[in-house]
């Protein structure tokens, strides 16, 4: 955990260190980039079905990474993969009944985590934080466009 601002350290370095900690914390505690939890929630929110291609596009990860995640979910009995009825080269991903149950459980855990993670800040402080973070995101986004 971050130890706060070090007096002899530039303030920007302390901010970046804390952002790094927060990024790693969120990655570990919220299922990674497209962990099993996220796939279950996405499928649940889409009524229990999605094309594999759509899942991959939304996640912006490689086909191999998604296939590995889907294989794990299938091995655990949470999903089934079936050939698409409209394009035989594609697969549809379907939640099983067990998958729906797990998705509801995971969704509740995620909601509790989201409610708790900023409970140390009051509503006004959360608004200030999001305003500041939005400015940083916009600035970093504009810098990324510069190459």
Structural class: mainly alpha
| Strand arrangement, major sheet | 1-3-2
Q: Give the CATH class of the largest domain.
A: Mainly Alpha
Spans where pLDDT lies below 50 across 5 or more residues: none
Task: Report the principal-axis shape.
Answer: elongated
Terminus-to-terminus distance: 32 Å
Textual characterization of the structure:
The chain has 147 residues and is mostly helical. It folds into 2 domains: 1-30; 34-145, Arc Repressor Mutant, subunit A. It is 64% helix and 9% strand. The chain is built from 6 helices and 3 strands, in the order H-H-E-H-H-E-E-H-H. The chain has helices spanning 11-29, 36-45, 52-59, 63-75, 97-117, 123-145, and strands spanning 49-51, 79-83, 91-95. Strand 2 (79-83) and strand 3 form a beta hairpin. The longest helix is centred in the last third of the chain and has 23 residues, at 123-145. The relative contact order is 0.10.
């Amino acid at each position: 955990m971050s130890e706060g601002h070090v007096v002899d350290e530039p303030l920007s370095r302390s901010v970046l260190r804390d952002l790094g900690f927060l990024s790693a914390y969120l990655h570990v505690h919220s299922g990674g980039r497209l962990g099993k939890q996220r796939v279950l929630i996405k499928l649940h929110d889409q009524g229990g079905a999605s094309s594999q291609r759509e899942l991959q596009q939304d996640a912006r990860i490689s086909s191999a990474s998604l296939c590995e995640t889907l294989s794990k979910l299938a091995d655990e009995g949470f999903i089934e993969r079936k050939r698409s009825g409209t394009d035989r080269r594609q697969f549809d991903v379907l939640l099983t009944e067990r998958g729906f149950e797990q998705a509801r459980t995971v969704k509740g855990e995620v909601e509790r985590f989201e409610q708790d993670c900023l409970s140390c800040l009051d509503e006004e402080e959360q608004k200030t934080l999001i305003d500041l973070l939005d400015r940083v995101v916009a600035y970093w986004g504009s810098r990324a466009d510069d190459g």
